[in-house]
Design goal:
Number of domains: 2
Largest sheet: none
Number of strands: 0
Distance between the termini: 28 Å
Structural class: mainly alpha
Helix content: 55-70%
Shape: elongated
């Protein structure tokens, strides 16, 4: 094995501490975490990643797909004799990776800090206010007729679709750019070590990963935090149901085929299949977010460490579901004299939906994208199979530099 010179990045150490992973200094490389982890498959995971964190090897950490295979079940953290909490360290690395690959990177810093949260919320308020100011001039320019309904008169459907279509489109482009950078980094790291050997087609790999995501089966293999699977499943399918309803509503509003033999015009009635699906999805979203918040607040043994990165996303999901139901209730119950109240609640709902969707590439919601990409890459390169050759020597051997003392 050729010797390699280590150039530690002290900023990595600072960021890991900021993101809740400061316990990595306690790691003594005993490998208990690798023994108890059901995902290690004979590899030194996450022991190797803990060493890279101690040495400040940012490029190695953020380009490591194995970091994203961890679901922070914290079996390793509960068994660690030194309290190094590898599960929390890997969660901090994932947050660091999102910030590292984000396009533009500055938004990832703003979107996840409690100090910058007021500014992050103010941005959609100002943008929505600008859209409302441009509503009437744009309507005259486009020749659109008046729309009727409690919310359509306030924020017409054409304006709503155009507004969110524009900004979610920009967010989607940023997300694709970030994930593409991540994929190139994973491949470049493997090619540098001569380990990039595609074993499975990308299409086949993607189908296998989608099957795993559909059941969240890896959560079922967790011991200390196995119950988190249900919160994640509920939130996942709740969001998916609401996304399907949204796309259906846009098509129904402007095309009205009718879809699947269901003739209707948006807005849907309470007994419309899409409205029923929306309500079920909303309930799942609220349940999943509320359970995730309660699980983290209990602070039981093995509970993952929580930072602003986690809390903002969990409360945001809950706010989207809760304000959505409030908007629906007011639609059927509000008196004409109370329309201003309904419009105010609707504005709050639009703001939190904006933050959830448009800031997706920079928030914890980006886990959905980066984890999927990492899992596909692992399937594609067969890294998930049991190790044939021990990889303990894959770690760099610095010239004249010893690893930092665990007590340092």
């Amino acid at each position: 094995m050729d010797a390699q010179r280590i150039e530690p990045d002290l900023e990595v150490v600072r960021e890991l501490r900021e993101f809740g992973g400061e316990s990595f200094k306690r790691c003594s490389q005993c490998a208990t975490c690798s023994v108890v982890c059901d995902l290690s498959n004979g590899r030194p995971f996450p022991r190797r990643e803990m060493l890279w964190a101690q040495w400040g090897l940012r490029d190695r950490l953020v380009a490591d797909p194995s970091v994203w295979l961890c679901h922070q079940c914290n079996d390793c953290s509960t068994r660690c004799p030194r309290g190094a909490r590898p599960g929390d360290v890997l969660a901090a690395v994932r947050q660091q990776a999102i910030r590292h690959f984000a396009v533009p990177r500055l938004l990832a810093t703003w979107a996840n800090g409690s100090a910058t949260l007021p500014l992050v919320l103010l941005a959609p308020v100002l943008l929505i206010a600008g859209a409302l100011l441009a509503r009437d001039p744009l309507a005259r320019l486009l020749g659109t007729g008046p729309e009727h309904g409690l919310y359509a008169e306030f924020f017409p459907h054409w304006l709503l679709i155009g507004f969110f279509g524009l900004f979610t489109g920009l967010a989607a482009a940023a997300a694709v750019a970030g994930v593409a950078r991540f994929w190139r980094a994973m491949r470049a790291a493997d090619e540098a070590e001569g380990r990039y050997v595609p074993a499975t087609g990308l299409g086949t790999s993607l189908l296998r990963v989608l099957g795993a995501l559909a059941t969240h089966d890896r959560f079922a293999r967790c011991g200390a935090q196995g119950g988190r699977r249900w919160a994640h499943l509920a939130a996942f399918y709740g969001f998916l149901a609401l996304y399907v309803v949204t796309i259906w509503a846009v098509i129904d509003l402007y095309v009205n085929p009718p879809l699947l033999g269901i003739a209707s015009r948006y807005p849907f009635g309470l007994l419309h299949p899409m409205k029923l699906l929306a309500n079920v999805g909303g309930l799942l979203l609220v349940y999943g977010a509320a359970r995730a918040i309660l699980d983290r607040r209990r602070r039981l043994d093995g509970t993952p460490a929580s930072t602003a990165f986690d809390w903002i996303f969990a409360w945001l999901l809950l706010a989207v579901g809760a304000t959505g139901f409030a908007v629906e209730v007011l639609r059927f119950t509000v008196a004409p004299a109370q329309e201003a109240l309904a419009h105010g609640v609707y504005l709050v709902h639009l703001v939190v939906v904006f933050q959830l969707l448009v800031y997706l590439p920079y928030s914890k919601f980006a886990h959905l994208l980066y984890r999927t990409a990492a899992m596909v890459y692992v399937e594609h390169t067969a890294r998930h199979l049991p190790a044939v050759v021990a990889e303990a020597d894959d770690r760099p051997h610095p010239v004249g530099v010893a690893p930092p003392s665990p007590a340092a």
